[in-house]
Amino acid sequence: MVGIVIVSHSKQLALGVQELAAQMVQGNIRLAVAAGIEDDDNPLGTDPIQVYEAIASVFSDDGVLVLMDLGSALMSAEMALEFLDEAQRQQVHLCEAPLVEGAIAAVVAAAAGRNIQQVIAEARGALTAKASQLGVVSGQLAVVETQSIASSEDQTHAEYPTKEIQLIVSNRLGLHARPAAQFVATAARFQAQIRVRNITRNTEFVRGDSINQVAILGVRQGHELAIAATGVDADEALAALQALFASNFGEDRTNFEPPSAVRQEITPETDGELSGIAASPGVAIAPIVRYQPPAITITEYHVEDPEAEWQRLQTAIHTAQQEIQTLFSQATIQIGDAEAAIFDAHLLFLEDPVLLEAARQRIWDFYLNAEAAWQAVVNEVANSYRTLEDSYLQERVDDVVDVGQRVLRLLVGNTHSELHLSQPAILVATDLTPSDTAGLDPSQVLGICTTLGSATSHSAIIARTLGIPAVLGVDAEVVLHLEDGTLMALDGESGKAWVEPEPDILNLLAAKREAWQNAQQQARATAHQLAITRDGRQVSVFANIGSISDVQVAVANGAEGVGLLRTEFLYLDRATAPTEEEQFTVYQAIAQVLERRPLIIRTLDIGGDKPLPYLKIGVREANPFLGWRGIRFCLDSPELFKTQLRAILRASAGHNIKVMLPMIATVSEVRAAKQILAEVKVQLRQAGIPFNEAIAVGIMVEVPAAVAVAERLAAEVDFFSIGTNDLSQYVMASDRTNPRVATLVDGLHPAVLRMVQQTIQAAQTAGIWVGLCGELAADPLATAILVGLGLNELSVNPQAIPMLKVAIAQLSLAEAEAIAASALQQDSATDVRALVQQSRS
Ligand code: PEP
Ligand code: MG
């Protein structure tokens, strides 16, 4: 890969450019900085030796591009070339391109594998997008250069016909920085020449592998693009780009339209009425509780032993990573994979080499204590986000601050103040971090009212997922001085809040809340009917749950049972494993809420994305998803496993409980687990403790090996439940938590669907029932296919149940079977989606 060197008088400026560039290509970067000089009183300047060292550190035969700010930076760079031998000097190019825009364009081109000439052309053309947006003529050179490259490529591809597709951009902010970089990186993976034009804005075609040119298209949400590909792998290239669009570039798919994406401080319109940002719909009327996490005070001081200080910072970061891992696992269970990815981003932040290096340098260069060094670098990062033009990226400041505070808290030894409410309340705060919000209990926190925040902040996204009404950005002067217990009403749809509302407002809001609740109830009322297709096929609709409160929501939403109880929640966020008694109480309580409805309890599926610090698994494995997780860990920890099985068996007395084993890959694992279950049964029998002797045992089919030997496994168990979240990642060899391969982890890919079909066939042949409990079951585009493939049960998050039942009732089995058969014959997940959409129109 072409190396990039940034030469600047200011270290901060250079590091800022480096950080920005790294963000564009998600760290896939070969970039060094040579900036500032070793003079505490006058640190601005450039040093030829530093430039030489920076060049040497990124040098390869692919070449190096050097970008400089001004004046002596050029001289230092020219002098640095003198230190190189002749052959090396030929490969190093000093470039007059603008520092910031040039560096970003160059890094994107380099990351896409383009050669040094193309990288230079990209850097030189870097002002074109800006100039075009501002209506200024510029970048002629770049246009000329890219045209000359294009014409040589035209000849290479002359023998192939051009293929073209048209796509609508659905990202909320269009092809903003990151999606544009993804587009370019994807286009550059193929030999075919990719061109793209914005049909909506009636532009010319531009090169699809140029970040500048793609940026010039000014693509916004809803714009239609034409993408043309010419070359040997044109079809594959178009399919990959189509998949990128279909995955929404890995961005949040929420349809929620924020009324305002900017932070606001708003004054009241009438007495007692406050206007804010409508962040999460719903009405809440309750007394308030103010929440203020303890402030962290930092003192800056000189340290004698920078190495010890650096170690101290690393230990705090490591502990913060463990805390976030736990939060990530809990969030995966409570709010789903997509939203939990917020915390995955927090982890990436703590691994950011640029940030860590900046902190380390501060400690060493200035003999600074860890707290002061850390706070300074976090503030720098937060400020650089604040200055971005892209408002969505600006809002990531909250996440930066959240992670930064977590490490600081650990460094200064502050314990986190947990929020304990004695009665249901509306939470009033300045701001809530994503971590704070993820920990809220919707049955206690009826509403959220903050003075800062925005509708697209991660806290707001989590509030919506949890179903907590929220109004953000209200007048701090008013709400932060209220006494705890003051009555407040808020309407998360209109973004209004009232302090001690007048009776007429209260009546109005109570009526609105009632209407809202009635509408929900109506949907729930039909959700209590069975899901039967128009031609009479019944499909059971169950719920996936991860807590006792979930089961109530599930039943209220029409769940006919629980298809997956993720028992990990009992094991997380604590110092030791839960006792048999604790587990028994929880399982029994959930079964009681379900009455005679089935409850499928999945045994501990820890490891992979759900590590457990006190069991020392998951965290240190090179490939945790391929490691010691699920049944593998349980079989190796018989005492822990037996404790859980005893609790499940005891709860099964008088309740419709089934056991499900996760991550099964082999027949011997099932036999070993059943053997342990049999031993536990003997113990209970001997002790005279009642349990269901005939308790059903099933497995999750989520490992391709299990699909391959499904007919053997079917002979061992009473049921299958297909876990497409894991099955997709293992079939596609793509880590389900890695955003870079997110487009591959797609349950609608025909490869995954064929695995689902094989599993169903094996179950049907053996005469056992088969369900599906991965996220795919809740995808409206998957319903017809899954029903058509012959599943007996679909298990989804409780909120998705009413809509899923409606969708099933609208289908006919014959149509569903035809769609399923055709889906299996498609080439890609995109084609499958198109097929389903077509069948609906
Ligand atoms: C799955 O893998 O599809 C599944 C439901 O289990 P989990 O998401 O808990 O791994
Ligand atoms: Mg799984």
From TrEMBL:
Enzyme class name: transferase
Residue ranges occupied by any PTS EIIA type-4 domain in the UniProt entry: 1-136
UniProt GO molecular function: metal ion binding; phosphoenolpyruvate-glycerone phosphotransferase activity; phosphoenolpyruvate-protein phosphotransferase activity
Gene3D superfamilies: HPr-like (3.30.1340.10), Phosphoenolpyruvate-binding domains (3.20.20.60), Phosphohistidine domain (3.50.30.10), Phosphotransferase system, mannose-type IIA component (3.40.50.510), PtsI, HPr-binding domain (1.10.274.10)
Alphabetical UniProt keywords: Cytoplasm, Kinase, Magnesium, Metal-binding, Phosphotransferase system, Sugar transport, Transferase, Transport
Major subcellular site: cytoplasm
GO cellular component: cytoplasm; membrane
Matches recorded under SUPFAM superfamilies: Enzyme I of the PEP:sugar phosphotransferase system HPr-binding (sub)domain, HPr-like, Phosphoenolpyruvate/pyruvate domain, Phosphohistidine domain, PTS system fructose IIA component-like
GO annotation terms (biological process): phosphoenolpyruvate-dependent sugar phosphotransferase system
Domain of life: Bacteria
Cofactor dependency: Mg(2+)
Location of the protein in the cell: Cytoplasm
Known EC number: 2.7.1.121, 2.7.3.9
Reactions this protein catalyses: L-histidyl-[protein] + phosphoenolpyruvate = N(pros)-phospho-L-histidyl-[protein] + pyruvate; dihydroxyacetone + phosphoenolpyruvate = dihydroxyacetone phosphate + pyruvate
UniProt domain HPr: residue ranges: 160-252
PANTHER family for this protein: PHOSPHOENOLPYRUVATE-PROTEIN PHOSPHOTRANSFERASE
Protein family (similarity comment): Belongs to the PEP-utilizing enzyme family.
Subunit record text: Homodimer. The dihydroxyacetone kinase complex is composed of a homodimer of DhaM, a homodimer of DhaK and the subunit DhaL.
Function noted in UniProt: Component of the dihydroxyacetone kinase complex, which is responsible for the phosphoenolpyruvate (PEP)-dependent phosphorylation of dihydroxyacetone. DhaM serves as the phosphoryl donor. Is phosphorylated by phosphoenolpyruvate in an EI- and HPr-dependent reaction, and a phosphorelay system on histidine residues finally leads to phosphoryl transfer to DhaL and dihydroxyacetone.
Name of the protein this chain belongs to: Phosphocarrier protein HPr
Organism: Dendronalium phyllosphericum CENA369
Gene: ptsP
